[in-house]
Design brief:
heterodimer; A: 151 residues; five-stranded parallel β-sheet; 14% strand; globular; B: 618 residues; alpha+beta; five-stranded mixed β-sheet; 12 strands; disordered C terminus
């Protein structure tokens, strides 16, 4: 893996329960070792662009995938997505919307901004666990990232 | 020559008598002071002419008395004309008194000096002086009004102008002849000169006649100039007036101008005075009340006690009646039949104009009302749109925020079951199972509710749809997971319809699921999908042989979360039929059901408005 920090997943999630369930599902499928969790949109931006609390981080050190909720405190998910996809340094990092919103407008806007995938969190836990497994499998093992992403 | 002179003088005398008679007749017809003086003036002139013809036939004993009488009448004719002028333009008390006094003095003097009569009288110097005074007084009495009449005629309508000028020329002519005869002295006795005077006097007869009672053809000739004016007035009335007041004001101006009147008003509708000119509002109201409904030429008593001639023409429109009233001014002492008919015609046109303006005003009112309504609708629409946006925000919140806690409930109970089952007692597991089930059920409710609310907001994509195929697809969906059930379905030949195929399929899915669900107790469930055309409208139906329901609760069937069966008997959320109802309604159709407990149920729906008989029955 090219990323020196070895970070694989950035989970942007403000709901502690959802965070716990997601991490629980990842753990069940042995995917928890390199997940970093941030709890609002502002922290997510600081992390990605290495500012504020994450000033010592290196911008080239990007996760393999960013899981992003839409409804977030401070800066909402769509804005975070817009900033990531609008910056040439971060544009190639895969972003997956992981949200409760089934709203057509959110879906359309996310794709317009260049999201790589849009997933509605299932209410049913079995389905939820299955989703987490498939997500990890696909983005961490099957998907081949752009060389640029690791540069 | 002498015979010719005789004939001419006789004809002139006859002419004056005739005109005098006409004037008298006119005065008898309408007795106002102006006409009275005019009749007196002309009548006296006629009498003097007639007496002049009689003088030679009388015995000399009567001659001087007769001659005095004729002189008095002659003077009276002049004074009467001056008094006529006074009714038109007041002379002033002093002038009037002096005129009457001087005339009286001259008449007395003439009687006192015993003027000789005969064709060629010999005057003493005193007598000559009296004759001179007499002629001068007469000429002044008549000449001044003649000149005055000529001058004021300028601002009158054509007929009035011509009549005044004719009177002016006629009297002026007589004055000229008389003065010439007096001052010509001996030359006047020459036969040729006498003949000239006689001819001139005779010529004055038709001129004066034209002034008093002009024939129709003459009036028409005089009026030609005004025809154009009339047309202009008409056009103004019929086309250019934007509102009632403007129209009435314009119309009154034109009418006054054409009739030569100076005062007038228009009452419309009934006694409402909408336009008036040169008359006080209260005076107009009083006249209006006095006239009432009686049109034509009327004599009205003004506030100051004077009488005024008025011409009243009715204004009749489809909705109301009114009156155009013109009051005779100083120089329009007489309205002819022509003026009356003319003003009548104009009044008719005016009524048409009023009607048109009323329509225009009504239309403007309606337009304004319409604009108001449109404004209101626009505001309501904006309100509705705002409410709709709020609803969207609401359902967004529901979608996002309600699902998160549900996921936690489901997730953590699942984890407890999976990983901590050993630590839980049986009772704890039972309770936990209930929490888990309830969470799952609530999740379904939220999902249905969201789907249902989305139904109302999604745009419809109507197209020609093969209904049989849609019903078949719906059945394919519903029949999945029917293991262990015996279901016989018959889908008839359904006519093609105009609808959104996805929504229509949802209708069939929901109706068929219900049919399957509620026929569960039957060994063999029978489901029949059919269509029939009634009153030009296709009615689709889904019939089952299930448990049915009591029709008295039928009105609750299509409401959200309303159920006719207990959840532990028949699972469900109470959204299925509400969804059907909403879809059908959005297509402009109706849905209804027929059922009886234990005897199955039939659901009917249409897609383009319910037929009359059904709407009445429902």
């Amino acid at each position: 893996m090219a990323s020196s920090g070895g970070l694989e997943i950035l989970l942007v999630e403000d709901n502690a329960n959802d965070e716990m369930l997601t991490l629980h599902a990842f753990k069940k499928h042995n995917l928890t070792n390199r997940v970093h969790v941030v709890r609002d949109g502002a922290e997510a931006l600081e992390f990605v662009f290495c500012t504020g609390r994450y000033a010592e981080r290196h911008i080239g050190d990007l996760p393999k995938v960013i899981l992003l909720d839409i409804k977030l405190p401070l800066v909402d998910g769509l804005e975070v997505l817009r900033r990531i996809k609008g910056d040439p340094r971060t544009r190639t990092t895969p972003v997956v919307m992981l949200t409760s919103s089934r709203e057509e407008s959110d879906l359309v806007e996310s794709y317009r901004l260049g999201v790589n995938s849009y997933i509605v969190k299932p209410v049913d836990f079995e389905q939820f666990t299955e989703m987490a497994r498939a997500l990890g499998m696909y983005w961490l093992l099957l998907n081949k990232p752009s060389a640029n992403a690791a540069a | 020559m002498a015979a010719l002179l005789q004939v001419l003088q006789a004809a002139t005398a006859a002419g004056f008598v005739a005109i005098g008679a006409l004037a008298l007749k006119d005065w008898l017809g309408r007795r106002d002071p102006g006409r009275g003086y005019l009749a007196l003036a002309v009548g006296c002139l006629g009498i003097v002419s007639a007496m002049g013809r009689l003088t030679p036939e009388l015995p000399p004993s009567l001659g001087w008395a007769f001659s005095d009488l004729s002189l008095a009448i002659f003077l009276m004719s002049g004074l009467a004309l001056l008094l006529f002028r006074d009714t038109v333009i007041p002379l002033g008390r002093r002038v009037k008194t002096s005129a009457v006094a001087i005339t009286g003095v001259v008449a007395v003097a003439a009687a006192a000096v015993q003027l000789p009569s005969g064709t060629s009288p010999q005057y003493s110097p005193l007598q000559y002086g009296v004759v001179l005074a007499l002629v001068l007084v007469w000429c002044l009495s008549v000449g001044e009004p003649s000149v005055r009449m000529w001058l004021v005629a300028r601002h009158q309508p054509a007929v009035q102008q011509a009549r005044l000028r004719a009177l002016s020329v006629g009297y002026g002519g007589i004055v000229a002849i008389l003065l010439s005869a007096v001052f010509a002295g001996s030359a006047a006795t020459a036969p040729a000169v006498q003949l000239g005077f006689a001819l001139a006097a005779l010529a004055m007869v038709p001129v004066l006649y034209a002034g008093f009672a002009p024939p129709g053809w003459l009036r028409r000739v005089w009026r030609r100039r005004e025809e154009e004016l009339f047309q202009q007035a008409t056009r103004d009335l019929l086309i250019f007036s934007p509102d009632t007041t403007t129209l009435a004001t314009k119309a009154l101006e034109w009418a006054l101008r054409m009739a030569g009147a100076k005062q007038g008003f228009i009452a419309f509708p009934q006694a409402t005075i909408i336009a008036r000119q040169a008359i006080a509002a209260d005076e107009a109201a009083r006249f209006c009340a006095e006239i009432g409904n009686q049109a034509g030429i009327r004599l009205l008593r003004s506030g100051r006690g004077a009488t005024q001639t008025a011409i009243a023409s009715p204004l009749v429109t489809g909705k109301a009646t009114g009156m155009l009233v013109l009051l005779a001014g100083p120089f329009t002492p007489v309205f002819g039949a022509d003026e009356v008919s003319w003003i009548g015609q104009y009044a008719t046109l005016m009524a048409t104009g009023l009607e048109r303006v009323a329509l225009v005003e009504e239309m403007a009112g309606l337009n304004q009302e319409l604009a108001g309504t449109v404004g209101k609708i626009t505001a309501q629409k904006a309100e509705l749109e705002a409410a709709n946006r709020e609803l969207e925000a609401y359902s967004y919140t529901v979608s996002h925020d309600l699902r998160a806690p549900l996921r936690a409930i489901n997730g953590f109970t699942a984890i407890l079951f999976d990983e901590h089952a050993a630590e839980l007692s049986e009772a704890a597991k039972d309770y936990l199972g209930r929490v888990h089930e309830s969470g799952k059920h609530m999740g379904e409710l939220v999902d249905y509710l969201l789907a249902f609310s989305r139904l109302g907001r999604q745009p419809m994509r109507k197209q020609s749809v093969n209904t049989t195929e849609v019903a078949g697809n719906a059945w394919t969906q519903v029949s999945e997971g029917l293991e262990g059930r015996q279901v016989t379905i018959h889908i008839g030949d359904l006519p093609i319809c105009e609808s959104d195929p996805i929504l229509l399929e949802q209708v069939f899915v929901n109706l068929l699921s219900n049919a399957v669900k509620y026929s569960r107790p039957r060994e063999v469930a029978l489901i029949d999908v059919a269509a029939e055309v009634k009153a030009g409208q296709t009615i689709y139906s889904v019939r089952d042989n299930g448990v049915g329901f009591d029709m008295q609760y039928a009105d609750r069937l299509f409401r959200v979360f309303q159920r006719l069966h207990r959840a532990d008997e028949y699972e469900g959320t109470g959204v299925g039929l509400a969804t059907v109802h909403r879809i059908v309604e959005r297509h402009g159709g109706r849905v209804w059901a027929e059922a009886a407990p234990g005897k199955g149920a039939t659901f009917y729906f249409t897609l383009k408005g319910a037929p009359e008989w059904q709407a009445a029955a429902a």
